[in-house]
Every structure is written in C-alpha cells, then in structure tokens.
Specification:
alpha/beta, Rossmann fold, three-stranded mixed beta sheet, globular
Length: about 300
Amino acid sequence: MRVFLTGGGGMVGRNLAAHKSAARHTLMAPSRQQLDLSNFQDITHFIQDSRPDIIIHAAGKVGGIKANIADPYGFFAENLTLGQNVIGAAKECKVPRLINLGSSCIYPCNAPSPLKETDVLTGSLEPTNEGYALAKIAALRLCDYISSQFDELSYKTIIPCNLFGPFDKFDLIKAHLIPAIIRKIDDAVNASAKSVTIWGDGSARREFMFAGDFAGLLWRACEMFDSLPPVMNAGVGHDYSVKDYYEIIASVIGYRGEFDFDLSQPTGMAQKLTSCELASSWGWDAQVKLTDGIAQTYRYFKGVEPCKP
C-alpha cells in the first residue's frame, strides 16, 4: 500500500518506519519542512500528488503533565488544527481509509477502570491535560461523522495507552513519564545523588506500552483495516504506580539512592488503565515486557544500541 504518515519525525512515526513491516509498503512521511500540516491547501495538494491508499494521522503537539499544564491553549489549538486539516483534506480528496491516533487522555477522569471505548464523552476530563484531550476527542468524532455520512470513506481511531521507547523525548520539559524518569535517574547516577524527587505522592497509576509493539499494531491495522473496529484501545492491560516506575527504572539503570516526594506538584488522574478486550478479540496483544522495553529505551538514550522494533 501507499501509506501517508503524518508525524513521521515523532516517536510513533520513527518506530513505524523502523519496523520490519514497513518494507512491505511505500511509506510517505514528509517532514515539517516538506509539508506544513497547518495549511489545508498544502495537505490537499500533497494527497492529490501522492495518491495514498491510507493515511495514518500521528502528528501532534505532545508532552507530559508539566508541558500540558503550562500551555493548555497550545495543546488544544495546535492539535485541533492538525486533526481538522488532515482528516478534512483526506475527506475532500476521497482517501478511502484513515487511521487516527487518539489518546487515553480522552477518557473521563472519573470513569471506572479499565476504560472501555464506550466511555468516551461520558464525563468530565482530567484538568491537567484537558486541552489536549478535547482536541483528540474532536478528531475522533470527526472520523465517526465522516464514516457514517460517506459510504465510500472509512476513518477509524486507535486509542493507545501511554507509549515509550526509542526516539522518545528525554528532556525534562517535554518528556512523558518514563523518559523523564530515565533522564532524572541517569542524571542522579552520574552526579552520585542520594535522592530523586517524584512529583506528587507517586500513587497515580499508569499503563505504558513499548512503541515497537504499537508500530506493529499500526501495520497490522493497515493490512487488516476492514476488520479493525471503528474505535479501539491499544494497551497492555495492566498498570503500575508512578512510584513503581521509578523503582523499576532505578533497578534497570542501577540507581540505589532514595526517593522523596514534592507534594506541591499535581499527582494527576488517579488511574488510566485501558480495556484491551476489543483489541484481543481482534487478534492483537502486546508482546514486549516492561523491563525489556525500558532496558532497550535506556540503551537508546545512552546511544549504545540502534532501534530495532
């Protein structure tokens, strides 16, 4: 297939391109310099020229809790624009199939775990990332509306849990939880620090999947698109507390210091565990163990191992 991927320079996009399944297809992943996704006409012209069989919309402004709190407007406005432009241009050009990437942030903060696909829009959102979540919900509903209104178009959404792996961002301003912990603990080891600070009380529970696993799921979704549910979670089916992740990563890296807690900082949504029942019934389950994925991600961070999803 001819696959048009947005966000090819991000963690998901780069893992998708590095995956062994990519060799079976023609992957078109223009950089920001090559294609401005904030310009609807530019996207339309690219689609008309490249004639993709399917689009994977993975582009977006992403970041951890600190970044989301600091810039809710930016996370909402940029992701809303990208979703409207990419999905709208696909519809105008009559691209028959599209896979939109959602986020587990779109689930209500008070919904019981595990979070099921039917829980979307049943309650209020977690305030710390509400802007990002609203934009992602808008893209999901846009895909739903197009698919129901135009028989020749089928646009679907996959909702991954939190992801980590090679090609992630490890700076402490933009990083998500696992790469941020890797950076903090590696810095502590290098500085012989006696303690590492955890935001909040460490009790919030999060589900993380290795990005190489998710790349495999996306290629499977392209190749088995007709059987893919309209909206489907992608996760590992179990979670750990933030404190657990610090301890697990400390064990992988070899840090033996202590942890303290900054209770002036937000803990975030108490739990965000997704239901994997639909994905499992579709025939897909994650394969990479957490410690193996962390070890590979740490080797990538240190520059001692290439990425081989």
